[in-house]
Specification:
single chain; alpha+beta; D-Maltodextrin-Binding Protein, domain 2; 14 helices; 10 strands; globular; disordered N terminus; thiamine binding
Length: about 375
Protein backbone atom coordinates (compact mmCIF):
# COMPACT_ATOMS: atom_id res chain seq x y z
CA UNK A 1 0.00 0.00 0.00
CA UNK A 2 2.85 2.35 0.84
CA UNK A 3 4.38 1.70 -2.59
CA UNK A 4 1.07 2.43 -4.30
CA UNK A 5 0.61 5.64 -2.33
CA UNK A 6 4.18 6.65 -3.12
CA UNK A 7 3.59 6.17 -6.82
CA UNK A 8 0.37 8.20 -6.64
CA UNK A 9 2.26 10.92 -4.83
CA UNK A 10 5.03 10.89 -7.44
CA UNK A 11 2.51 11.11 -10.27
CA UNK A 12 0.75 13.99 -8.56
CA UNK A 13 4.09 15.77 -8.18
CA UNK A 14 4.91 15.28 -11.85
CA UNK A 15 1.50 16.59 -12.91
CA UNK A 16 1.89 19.59 -10.62
CA UNK A 17 5.33 20.35 -12.09
CA UNK A 18 3.96 20.07 -15.65
CA UNK A 19 1.09 22.42 -14.82
CA UNK A 20 3.47 24.87 -13.19
CA UNK A 21 5.83 24.77 -16.20
CA UNK A 22 2.96 25.33 -18.65
CA UNK A 23 1.77 28.29 -16.59
CA UNK A 24 5.28 29.73 -16.47
CA UNK A 25 5.68 29.37 -20.25
CA UNK A 26 2.31 31.04 -20.84
CA UNK A 27 3.24 33.91 -18.53
CA UNK A 28 6.63 34.21 -20.21
CA UNK A 29 5.03 34.40 -23.67
CA UNK A 30 2.52 37.00 -22.46
CA UNK A 31 5.40 39.11 -21.17
CA UNK A 32 7.30 38.69 -24.43
CA UNK A 33 4.28 39.68 -26.52
CA UNK A 34 3.74 42.78 -24.38
CA UNK A 35 7.41 43.79 -24.65
CA UNK A 36 7.44 43.22 -28.41
CA UNK A 37 4.29 45.28 -28.89
CA UNK A 38 5.84 48.07 -26.87
CA UNK A 39 8.77 48.12 -29.33
CA UNK A 40 6.18 48.29 -32.12
CA UNK A 41 8.26 47.06 -35.03
CA UNK A 42 10.42 44.26 -36.43
CA UNK A 43 13.05 44.80 -39.12
CA UNK A 44 13.77 41.87 -41.44
CA UNK A 45 16.16 41.51 -44.36
CA UNK A 46 16.45 39.23 -47.40
CA UNK A 47 12.95 37.72 -47.21
CA UNK A 48 11.36 37.71 -50.69
CA UNK A 49 7.65 36.93 -50.44
CA UNK A 50 7.79 34.10 -52.96
CA UNK A 51 10.64 32.30 -51.16
CA UNK A 52 9.45 29.58 -48.77
CA UNK A 53 6.07 31.33 -48.51
CA UNK A 54 7.55 34.27 -46.59
CA UNK A 55 4.79 36.54 -47.86
CA UNK A 56 2.20 34.58 -45.88
CA UNK A 57 4.58 34.28 -42.93
CA UNK A 58 5.03 38.04 -42.69
CA UNK A 59 1.32 38.75 -43.00
CA UNK A 60 0.50 36.03 -40.45
CA UNK A 61 2.86 37.54 -37.86
CA UNK A 62 1.49 41.04 -38.36
CA UNK A 63 -2.10 39.84 -38.11
CA UNK A 64 -1.46 37.79 -34.98
CA UNK A 65 0.51 40.35 -32.99
CA UNK A 66 -0.26 43.72 -34.61
CA UNK A 67 3.45 44.47 -35.00
CA UNK A 68 4.59 46.18 -38.18
CA UNK A 69 7.46 44.70 -40.22
CA UNK A 70 10.04 46.87 -41.92
CA UNK A 71 11.38 44.79 -44.82
CA UNK A 72 14.92 45.59 -45.94
CA UNK A 73 16.33 44.49 -49.31
CA UNK A 74 14.25 41.33 -49.95
CA UNK A 75 16.65 40.09 -52.66
CA UNK A 76 19.82 40.34 -50.53
CA UNK A 77 22.08 37.32 -50.02
CA UNK A 78 23.43 35.86 -46.79
CA UNK A 79 26.65 37.85 -47.06
CA UNK A 80 24.66 41.06 -47.48
CA UNK A 81 22.74 40.28 -44.29
CA UNK A 82 25.93 39.86 -42.28
CA UNK A 83 27.34 43.09 -43.66
CA UNK A 84 24.12 44.92 -42.74
CA UNK A 85 24.54 43.83 -39.12
CA UNK A 86 28.19 44.91 -39.07
CA UNK A 87 27.39 48.27 -40.65
CA UNK A 88 24.64 49.05 -38.14
CA UNK A 89 26.21 48.05 -34.83
CA UNK A 90 25.47 51.43 -33.26
CA UNK A 91 22.38 52.22 -35.28
CA UNK A 92 18.89 51.82 -33.80
CA UNK A 93 17.20 53.20 -36.91
CA UNK A 94 15.25 51.51 -39.73
CA UNK A 95 18.36 50.28 -41.59
CA UNK A 96 19.45 47.97 -38.77
CA UNK A 97 18.11 44.39 -39.15
CA UNK A 98 16.74 42.59 -36.11
CA UNK A 99 16.78 39.06 -37.52
CA UNK A 100 18.68 37.03 -40.08
CA UNK A 101 17.90 34.06 -42.34
CA UNK A 102 21.22 32.83 -43.75
CA UNK A 103 22.96 29.78 -45.18
CA UNK A 104 24.34 27.31 -42.66
CA UNK A 105 27.98 28.35 -43.07
CA UNK A 106 27.19 31.93 -42.03
CA UNK A 107 25.82 30.94 -38.61
CA UNK A 108 29.04 29.79 -36.91
CA UNK A 109 31.03 32.64 -38.47
CA UNK A 110 28.53 35.24 -37.28
CA UNK A 111 28.63 33.73 -33.78
CA UNK A 112 32.43 33.81 -33.75
CA UNK A 113 32.33 37.48 -34.75
CA UNK A 114 29.90 38.31 -31.92
CA UNK A 115 27.08 39.29 -34.26
CA UNK A 116 24.33 37.06 -32.82
CA UNK A 117 22.18 37.20 -29.70
CA UNK A 118 21.55 33.72 -28.22
CA UNK A 119 17.90 32.74 -27.87
CA UNK A 120 16.16 29.39 -27.52
CA UNK A 121 12.55 29.10 -28.66
CA UNK A 122 10.01 27.05 -26.71
CA UNK A 123 10.19 24.24 -29.30
CA UNK A 124 14.01 24.12 -29.08
CA UNK A 125 14.13 20.41 -28.22
CA UNK A 126 12.46 19.50 -31.54
CA UNK A 127 15.25 21.11 -33.57
CA UNK A 128 17.82 18.39 -34.42
CA UNK A 129 21.10 18.78 -32.54
CA UNK A 130 23.12 18.72 -35.75
CA UNK A 131 21.13 21.69 -37.06
CA UNK A 132 21.59 24.15 -34.21
CA UNK A 133 24.19 25.88 -32.07
CA UNK A 134 24.23 24.47 -28.55
CA UNK A 135 24.29 28.00 -27.09
CA UNK A 136 21.30 29.18 -29.13
CA UNK A 137 23.21 31.64 -31.33
CA UNK A 138 21.80 30.13 -34.55
CA UNK A 139 19.37 27.33 -35.35
CA UNK A 140 18.08 25.57 -38.45
CA UNK A 141 14.77 26.89 -39.75
CA UNK A 142 13.94 24.99 -42.93
CA UNK A 143 15.68 22.74 -45.39
CA UNK A 144 15.46 21.08 -48.77
CA UNK A 145 16.66 17.63 -49.74
CA UNK A 146 18.20 16.54 -53.03
CA UNK A 147 15.47 14.91 -55.09
CA UNK A 148 14.70 13.60 -58.57
CA UNK A 149 12.36 15.63 -60.76
CA UNK A 150 11.04 13.36 -63.52
CA UNK A 151 9.20 14.33 -66.71
CA UNK A 152 6.87 11.34 -66.88
CA UNK A 153 5.88 12.09 -70.47
CA UNK A 154 9.41 10.93 -71.34
CA UNK A 155 10.39 8.67 -68.42
CA UNK A 156 7.76 6.12 -67.45
CA UNK A 157 9.55 4.50 -64.48
CA UNK A 158 10.41 7.02 -61.77
CA UNK A 159 13.77 6.24 -60.07
CA UNK A 160 13.52 5.62 -56.32
CA UNK A 161 17.20 5.65 -55.36
CA UNK A 162 20.57 6.81 -56.65
CA UNK A 163 21.54 3.37 -57.89
CA UNK A 164 18.45 3.31 -60.13
CA UNK A 165 19.93 6.13 -62.20
CA UNK A 166 22.49 3.67 -63.61
CA UNK A 167 19.79 1.55 -65.22
CA UNK A 168 19.21 1.44 -68.99
CA UNK A 169 15.84 3.16 -68.48
CA UNK A 170 17.69 6.46 -67.94
CA UNK A 171 20.00 6.56 -70.94
CA UNK A 172 20.64 10.18 -71.91
CA UNK A 173 18.26 11.42 -69.22
CA UNK A 174 19.97 12.42 -65.94
CA UNK A 175 21.16 16.00 -65.38
CA UNK A 176 22.37 18.28 -62.63
CA UNK A 177 21.01 21.76 -61.93
CA UNK A 178 24.29 23.58 -62.36
CA UNK A 179 28.01 22.95 -62.63
CA UNK A 180 29.37 20.80 -59.76
CA UNK A 181 32.58 22.81 -59.72
CA UNK A 182 30.68 25.90 -58.57
CA UNK A 183 26.93 25.29 -57.97
CA UNK A 184 26.06 24.20 -54.43
CA UNK A 185 22.99 22.15 -55.37
CA UNK A 186 25.04 20.20 -57.96
CA UNK A 187 27.81 19.64 -55.42
CA UNK A 188 25.29 18.34 -52.90
CA UNK A 189 23.86 15.96 -55.51
CA UNK A 190 27.28 14.31 -55.65
CA UNK A 191 27.29 14.38 -51.85
CA UNK A 192 23.99 12.47 -51.79
CA UNK A 193 25.27 9.90 -54.28
CA UNK A 194 28.38 9.42 -52.13
CA UNK A 195 26.30 8.95 -48.98
CA UNK A 196 24.13 6.40 -50.79
CA UNK A 197 27.28 4.47 -51.71
CA UNK A 198 28.14 4.09 -48.03
CA UNK A 199 30.66 6.91 -47.55
CA UNK A 200 30.98 8.38 -44.06
CA UNK A 201 33.12 11.54 -44.13
CA UNK A 202 33.61 14.50 -46.45
CA UNK A 203 36.55 13.32 -48.58
CA UNK A 204 35.21 9.75 -48.88
CA UNK A 205 31.75 11.08 -49.74
CA UNK A 206 33.26 13.23 -52.50
CA UNK A 207 35.33 10.34 -53.90
CA UNK A 208 32.35 7.99 -54.03
CA UNK A 209 30.11 10.71 -55.46
CA UNK A 210 32.63 11.43 -58.22
CA UNK A 211 32.98 7.70 -58.93
CA UNK A 212 29.19 7.39 -59.22
CA UNK A 213 28.95 10.23 -61.74
CA UNK A 214 31.92 8.86 -63.67
CA UNK A 215 30.01 5.61 -64.09
CA UNK A 216 26.81 7.49 -64.91
CA UNK A 217 28.64 9.47 -67.59
CA UNK A 218 30.47 6.48 -69.07
CA UNK A 219 27.20 4.56 -69.28
CA UNK A 220 25.66 7.42 -71.29
CA UNK A 221 22.99 8.26 -68.73
CA UNK A 222 24.42 11.65 -67.71
CA UNK A 223 23.44 14.72 -69.75
CA UNK A 224 25.85 17.68 -69.29
CA UNK A 225 23.09 20.29 -69.58
CA UNK A 226 21.92 22.59 -66.77
CA UNK A 227 18.56 21.09 -65.78
CA UNK A 228 16.34 24.15 -65.63
CA UNK A 229 12.59 24.17 -66.29
CA UNK A 230 12.83 24.54 -70.09
CA UNK A 231 15.09 21.54 -70.84
CA UNK A 232 13.12 19.42 -68.35
CA UNK A 233 9.85 20.28 -70.09
CA UNK A 234 11.38 19.78 -73.55
CA UNK A 235 12.67 16.33 -72.58
CA UNK A 236 16.35 17.25 -72.95
CA UNK A 237 16.95 16.59 -69.24
CA UNK A 238 13.93 14.50 -68.19
CA UNK A 239 15.49 13.44 -64.87
CA UNK A 240 16.70 16.52 -62.96
CA UNK A 241 18.63 16.43 -59.68
CA UNK A 242 17.77 19.47 -57.59
CA UNK A 243 16.43 20.63 -54.23
CA UNK A 244 12.93 19.30 -53.65
CA UNK A 245 11.44 22.77 -53.04
CA UNK A 246 12.66 23.93 -56.46
CA UNK A 247 11.26 20.85 -58.17
CA UNK A 248 7.92 20.94 -56.34
CA UNK A 249 7.42 24.60 -57.21
CA UNK A 250 8.39 23.79 -60.81
CA UNK A 251 5.85 20.95 -60.84
CA UNK A 252 3.09 23.31 -59.77
CA UNK A 253 4.06 25.96 -62.31
CA UNK A 254 3.99 23.39 -65.14
CA UNK A 255 0.40 22.46 -64.22
CA UNK A 256 0.76 19.00 -65.70
CA UNK A 257 2.24 20.14 -69.02
CA UNK A 258 4.36 18.12 -68.87
CA UNK A 259 3.63 16.10 -65.72
CA UNK A 260 6.56 16.30 -63.32
CA UNK A 261 6.90 13.77 -60.51
CA UNK A 262 9.23 14.48 -57.61
CA UNK A 263 10.87 11.59 -55.74
CA UNK A 264 13.13 11.72 -52.69
CA UNK A 265 15.70 8.91 -52.89
CA UNK A 266 15.40 6.07 -50.38
CA UNK A 267 19.06 6.49 -49.33
CA UNK A 268 21.63 9.26 -49.44
CA UNK A 269 19.02 11.85 -48.43
CA UNK A 270 21.12 14.97 -48.01
CA UNK A 271 19.61 18.15 -46.56
CA UNK A 272 20.61 21.72 -47.21
CA UNK A 273 19.57 23.81 -44.24
CA UNK A 274 19.18 27.55 -43.68
CA UNK A 275 19.47 29.05 -40.20
CA UNK A 276 17.90 31.86 -38.18
CA UNK A 277 19.57 34.23 -35.79
CA UNK A 278 18.91 37.46 -33.92
CA UNK A 279 21.31 40.35 -34.40
CA UNK A 280 23.36 41.10 -31.30
CA UNK A 281 22.58 44.76 -32.05
CA UNK A 282 18.86 44.32 -32.75
CA UNK A 283 16.95 47.58 -32.20
CA UNK A 284 13.85 45.51 -31.39
CA UNK A 285 15.15 42.46 -29.47
CA UNK A 286 11.79 41.43 -28.02
CA UNK A 287 10.04 41.64 -31.40
CA UNK A 288 12.92 39.56 -32.78
CA UNK A 289 12.40 36.88 -30.12
CA UNK A 290 8.65 36.87 -30.75
CA UNK A 291 9.30 36.48 -34.50
CA UNK A 292 11.42 33.42 -33.69
CA UNK A 293 8.66 31.97 -31.51
CA UNK A 294 6.23 32.46 -34.38
CA UNK A 295 8.56 30.87 -36.95
CA UNK A 296 9.11 27.80 -34.76
CA UNK A 297 5.50 27.42 -33.67
CA UNK A 298 3.30 24.85 -35.43
CA UNK A 299 1.67 27.72 -37.35
CA UNK A 300 4.98 29.11 -38.60
CA UNK A 301 6.43 25.72 -39.48
CA UNK A 302 3.37 24.81 -41.54
CA UNK A 303 3.55 28.17 -43.32
CA UNK A 304 7.04 27.29 -44.58
CA UNK A 305 5.86 23.83 -45.59
CA UNK A 306 3.14 25.39 -47.76
CA UNK A 307 6.04 26.93 -49.72
CA UNK A 308 7.70 23.48 -49.97
CA UNK A 309 10.52 24.43 -47.61
CA UNK A 310 10.66 21.64 -45.06
CA UNK A 311 10.43 23.13 -41.56
CA UNK A 312 13.13 21.98 -39.19
CA UNK A 313 10.54 20.43 -36.85
CA UNK A 314 9.05 18.36 -39.69
CA UNK A 315 9.94 14.93 -38.27
CA UNK A 316 8.62 15.72 -34.79
CA UNK A 317 5.45 17.30 -36.15
CA UNK A 318 4.89 14.39 -38.55
CA UNK A 319 5.17 11.85 -35.74
CA UNK A 320 2.77 13.91 -33.64
CA UNK A 321 0.21 14.01 -36.46
CA UNK A 322 0.39 17.81 -36.71
CA UNK A 323 0.79 18.06 -40.48
CA UNK A 324 -2.50 18.33 -42.41
CA UNK A 325 -3.05 15.56 -44.93
CA UNK A 326 -3.61 17.98 -47.80
CA UNK A 327 -0.06 19.30 -47.31
CA UNK A 328 1.41 15.80 -47.06
CA UNK A 329 -0.39 14.81 -50.26
CA UNK A 330 1.61 17.44 -52.18
CA UNK A 331 4.94 16.02 -50.99
CA UNK A 332 6.94 12.85 -51.58
CA UNK A 333 6.46 10.25 -48.79
CA UNK A 334 7.40 11.52 -45.32
CA UNK A 335 9.42 8.38 -44.45
CA UNK A 336 12.22 9.36 -46.84
CA UNK A 337 12.44 12.85 -45.35
CA UNK A 338 12.95 11.22 -41.95
CA UNK A 339 16.25 9.82 -43.29
CA UNK A 340 17.62 13.29 -44.05
CA UNK A 341 21.26 13.86 -43.10
CA UNK A 342 22.42 17.36 -42.15
CA UNK A 343 26.11 17.47 -43.16
CA UNK A 344 28.48 19.24 -40.82
CA UNK A 345 30.28 22.28 -42.16
CA UNK A 346 33.59 20.43 -42.02
CA UNK A 347 32.20 17.57 -44.12
CA UNK A 348 30.57 19.99 -46.57
CA UNK A 349 33.75 22.00 -47.01
CA UNK A 350 35.89 18.89 -47.47
CA UNK A 351 33.46 17.47 -50.01
CA UNK A 352 33.11 20.74 -51.93
CA UNK A 353 36.86 21.14 -52.26
CA UNK A 354 37.35 17.56 -53.42
CA UNK A 355 34.43 17.67 -55.87
CA UNK A 356 35.48 21.00 -57.40
CA UNK A 357 39.04 19.71 -57.77
CA UNK A 358 38.12 16.23 -59.01
CA UNK A 359 35.18 16.78 -61.38
CA UNK A 360 37.26 17.48 -64.51
CA UNK A 361 39.78 14.73 -63.77
CA UNK A 362 37.34 12.02 -62.72
CA UNK A 363 34.11 12.74 -64.64
CA UNK A 364 35.28 15.10 -67.37
CA UNK A 365 31.88 16.41 -68.45
CA UNK A 366 31.39 20.16 -68.86
CA UNK A 367 27.87 21.14 -67.76
CA UNK A 368 26.45 23.87 -70.01
Amino acid sequence: MTDHLGRVGSLAAILAMSTSLAAAQSSSMDDLVAAAKAEGQLTTIALPHDWCNYGEMIEGFKAKYGIQINELNPMAGSGDEIEAVKANKGNKGPQAPDVLDVGLSFGPTAKKDGLLMPYKVQTWNEIPDDAKDADGAWYGDYYGVLAFGVNTDVIKTVPQDWSDLLKDDYEGAVALAGDPRTANNAIMALYGAGLSAGAKDGKDIADKGLAFFKELNEKGNFVPVDAEAAPIAQGTTPVALNWDYNLLAMRDSMKGNPPLEVAVPSSGVVAGVYVQGISAYAPHPNAAKLWMEYLYSDEGQLTWLKGYCHPIRFNAMSKAGKIPQDLLDKLPPAENYEKAVFPSLDDQNAAKAAIADGWDKVVGAAVK
